[in-house]
Write a structure and sequence with these properties.
alpha+beta; Lipocalin; 8-stranded antiparallel beta barrel
Length: 303
């Protein structure tokens, strides 16, 4: 990968600030397996970090060719002190990271600065040695800065798990307890007059009204009557009912015409009466025909 001044650099992504300091460590194999996996997953679609990773790989290859391995930080000062010339050297030329990368490419001829005709050979060798020292020092400084940034940004404790936002959490569906139903038996029922006030028992028959407010043909759906003695009658079946505040328990006499089966003899509903219309809401009833009859209509009181 080569760079020039005419090719625009890819723009960094928000997570590049976290993963870019880890690129030198990935090049040197200093990351754990989980950390290396996270960095490679980020590199898969980040051109910005891919470019910088290639730069670090080129610099590492240049170090390996010049020194047989990256110099450690403690030895860098001692080596520099041992090779410091007695006389002050000429100001070193200014090299950019692009110059160093281009010089480190194996397939690209190394472009060296041509000394002036009167420059002696000793000074030319000193310039080349100085160029190598500057390149090595620059690589060490970059690696040291990356290590400092990486370990400085890492949290000291365990990573906190992200808390999902309240809108991302699905609302919990309330659990409605199923009221157990009693078993009455196949014998004839003995009804008991209800004592709860408010239910329109003994006030005449109730006729079905559909959802649009129209009366239903009596041949399709008959009326219902709740008697004061606790008995009821609907088109065909007979039985008893009991009240518990706003709940009503309907018990079919299985010996009557078109009654519910013995296993579904009892049904539990809530009721509401506004003076004209009686409405039922199913709580627990396995007799589908009875549940459809009671809940699919509004029942109009006709004295």
């Amino acid at each position: 990968m080569s760079m020039n001044h005419h090719t625009p650099l890819p723009a960094p992504k928000p997570l590049c600030a976290v993963f870019k300091p880890q690129l030198p460590l990935l090049t040197l194999g200093k990351l754990t397996l989980d950390e290396a996996t996270e960095v490679r997953a980020h590199l898969a679609d980040c051109a910005y970090c891919q470019l910088h990773l290639r730069e670090y790989e080129i610099l590492a290859e240049a170090l390996h060719r010049h020194f047989g391995g990256a110099p450690s930080l403690p030895m860098r000062g001692a080596t520099r002190a041992r090779h410091t010339p007695t006389s002050p050297p000429e100001p070193p030329p200014m090299f950019t990271l692009e110059d160093i990368m281009n010089a480190s490419q194996p397939e690209t001829p190394v472009q060296t600065m041509q000394p002036p005709p009167h420059e002696p050979p000793q000074q030319r060798h000193a310039t080349l040695a100085l160029f190598g020292a500057i390149a090595a020092a620059l690589v060490v400084v970059i690696l040291a800065a990356s290590l400092f940034a990486y370990f400085g940004l890492r949290p000291s404790g365990p990573a906190a798990k992200p808390t999902p936002s309240p809108r991302s959490q699905a609302p919990a569906t309330p659990t409605v307890p199923i009221t157990p139903l009693p078993t009455v038996g196949s014998g004839r029922l003995t009804c008991t007059a209800p004592t709860d006030a408010g239910f329109p028992s003994g006030s005449g028959a109730f006729y079905p009204i559909d959802q649009r407010g129209n009366a239903v043909d009596g041949q399709e759906q008959g009326s219902i009557a709740f008697h004061a003695d606790g008995s009821f009658s609907r088109a065909g079946p007979r039985g008893c009912y009991t009240l518990n505040h706003q709940q009503i328990q309907v018990i079919d006499d299985v010996n009557t015409f078109q009654a519910c089966e013995l296993s579904a003899q009892v049904g539990l509903y809530t009721w509401a009466f506004d003076g004209t219309y009686l409405r039922f809401t199913r709580v627990n009833d396995d007799c589908l025909d009875r549940a459809h009859t009671l809940t699919n209509f509004r029942w109009k009181s006709v004295p």
